[in-house]
Specification:
By secondary structure, this protein is α+β, with helices and mostly antiparallel strands. Helix content is about 20%, strand content about 30%. A five-stranded antiparallel sheet has the order 1-2-3-6-7. Bound molecules: nickel (II) ion (NI).
Length: about 160
């Protein structure tokens, strides 16, 4: 099922998120499947629960062109980040049409739980590292609009997304 996406200035994007408990209940498992359908339909590479109106520590990563099938990160934490910083153009499904450069650590390690409740780690220094940081930021109520280095597209849309 495709879920409606929440856009700025919706306050749910700024609400604290709650960790999930295992085993996951049926409604959360359905939510995860629906989030996968939703991120695919939107041609996104990631989707965090606040973006569909749920203040949960849950995000989907979907970088199929890199050969990575969609997977959930639950209660994720960044455990290491490099001092080396890299800038990349990013957009967000919560502020469609706006793109800008965002500086982030190049290499990170995260720790998260999978859908079965198993803890796993990912270390990456490429595109995946940026997507993971973007999604984990959502779970900490941080949006790219807060950390754009410069806006590359959609400057005129910004007032529409401005929070009161
Ligand atoms: Ni986003």
């Amino acid at each position: 099922m495709i879920l409606p996406l929440v856009h700025l200035p919706s306050r749910v994007l700024r609400m604290p998120t709650q960790p999930l408990k295992f085993p996951l209940n049926k409604s959360v498992i359905k939510l995860i499947h629906d989030m996968v359908d939703t991120v695919r339909k939107a041609n996104g590479v990631g989707l965090a629960a606040p973006q569909i109106g749920q203040n949960l520590q849950l995000a989907i990563i979907d970088i199929e062109e890199a050969g990575i099938p969609p997977f959930a990160i639950i209660n994720p934490k960044i455990t290491e980040s490099s001092s080396e910083i890299e800038s990349m153009e990013e957009g967000c499904l919560s502020l469609p049409g706006v793109f800008g450069e965002v500086k982030r650590p190049k290499k990170i390690t995260i720790e998260a739980f999978d859908i079965e409740g198993k803890l796993f780690n990912i270390t990456d220094d490429g595109f995946l590292a940026k997507v993971l940081q973007h999604e984990i930021d959502h779970l900490n109520n941080k949006l790219i609009i807060d950390c754009f280095d410069n806006i590359t597209k959609g400057q005129e849309l910004l007032t529409k997304y401005q929070e009161k």
